[in-house]
Amino acid sequence: MSQPVSLTAYLTEAAVSHRIDEALVTVVQQIGAACREISGALNHAALAGILGATESANASGETQKKLDLVANDAFIHALGPTGVVAGIASEELDGPYPVPGASGDYLVLLDPLDGSSNIDVNISVGSIFSILRAPRGAAGLSDADFLQAGTAQVCAGFAVYGPATVLVLCFGHGVQGFTMHPISGEFLLTQPDIRIPEHTSEFAINTSNQRWWQPPVQRYIAECVAGKSGPRGRDFNMRWVGSMVADVYRLLTRGGIFMYPRDTKDATKPGKLRLMYEANPIGYVVEQAGGAASTGYGRILELAPEQVHQRVAVIMGSREEVERVASYHAAG
Ligand code: AHM
Ligand code: MG
Question: What is the 8-class DSSP label of residue 275?
Answer without folding.
Answer: I
